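Action item from last week, closing it out:
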Amino acid sequence: MAHKFRKGVVDNIATWCQRLKLDVVPGRDLEKHVELISPHKSHKSPYLQLDSKFLKGFEVVANANSRSVTDQIDTNLFDEVLMPRDKSGALKFVFHLKREPFINAVLNEVRTQGQQYGTLSEIHARTAEKVVVEFSSPNIAKPFHAGHIRSTLIGNFVANLLHALGHQVTRLNYLGDWGTQFGLLAEGFQLYGSEEELLKQPIDHLFDVYVRINKEASSNKDVHERAKAAFNNLENGDKALLRLWHKFRVISINEYEDIYRRLGVRFDQYDGESMYAKSAREMIEALQKTGALCLKDGALCMPLDNEDNLSVLAKSDGSTVYLSRDLAAIYDRKDRFKFDRLLYVVENGQHHHFSQLFQVAKNLKFLGPSELEHVKFGRVHGMSTREGKVVLLRDILAEAKSRMLQQMHAAPTTKIENDYESVADTLGISALIVQDLKDRRVRDYTFDWSKMLASKGDTGVYMQYTHARLCSIEKAAGMAVSSTVCADCLLEPEAVHLVQQTARFDEVLYRASQQLEPSTVVQYLLRLSRLANSANNRLKVKGEAEAVACARLLMFQSARQTLANGLRLLGIPPLEKM
């Protein structure tokens, strides 16, 4: 939203403080708490709101004796200021904006900032941080299944948003390429592996081998012991096992990169647990010498908050564990990336692991407590077959594309003349992303094909439809988008509400960045889409007087630009036709 209105609120409050001789002095930081209220059909004009909790000691202005001071406002920006109380009795400051200058300022800001609109606002932090975002992180030699989709999509959004806001972001994929699971795979490949099948369908064959050996190990202790021994030999540098491990790792990354390209996801760095096998052992040996560790059932442990609460760092056979390798990774990443924040985008089920990891890192004084964060998320239900088999992501994407193709061919309003396959693929992926990100990330949700691919409602298809519709308005108008606008031509409720929602974009990005919450952006874009379609149904461009047509065209173009900016942050390329 245009800076001068938010600044105007703070300036007016500062003036009141001086005139009332209060000790409260609002600073520029207060601007980020000045909120543009979401449009509502009862609103005749837009207004800004500030809760009194951000101004301790300011309750005195609600007294009758103070109103002669607070009635004095900047009449170039505001019509009036009200001081209602909410249900709890807390005071709010409500500044009603002058519609014409507000509309002019918002539309001009969108036009001049373009693809950067929403990210250049004064409310965002101007000090860039170095942030490492660890996300996706599949296990090698296994297909990319639906269980990895949430970490991939949420992590991609977090990285996109922080990068757009000016931070130096490193996108890190931390592969599960170490541990007893590889010992099982090595043992299984020796028994059931085929070089011929590995050439035909490498990941599928390795997964079949893993499933067979895992099933056998569950009923045969000898197999399990041989797998443990194989992993221990691998950690000790067995050359044959290292060659096999390297082959499986390269095969896996090639498979995953095909999926990432399709989803529009990229990484700056592929790391793996294997990188820290040696350094984790060295770290454990150093800790042993300091007396920081204790033995329990042969395993080396570190006490956390008391002697009974222990964290295992090495197994009884000397093998490292996930936590000790994660500790070594923290130390290495701090050295390599000099990060201010390290974010782990991993599901809720790993909460205990990260609590222990952060506690151990704190005990060892590796980092400050604010430098590590677990970005938790819930699980997806309904993504397995009736037999309980895991559904592969490539199959979900293929099915989504197929269903969208059917819908496009059946729809009489389809504008696509060719390239059906590419558009259908983009629509299917858009639908998947929005279904995954539209609710708060910590919640579980149930996968639903019919809801996900619907052209109406809270879906990615609906947002793409809205963007394409707004593009068609610009193309059909037969005129260039003007750099100036007659705000008097945009006084209808539908116009004011659409501009008001467009103006809220920077606030939405600020809240999303503070909470690392993609649903904040998705819900905003869905509301923007509904308001844009409502405005388009009533406010036509073609055939109207020139001043009205120019004003409406700029309004729709601003909404379209804002929608496109938001879609890109979600990882969705906006479509111009569908």
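Closing note: The longest strand covers residues 168-175.
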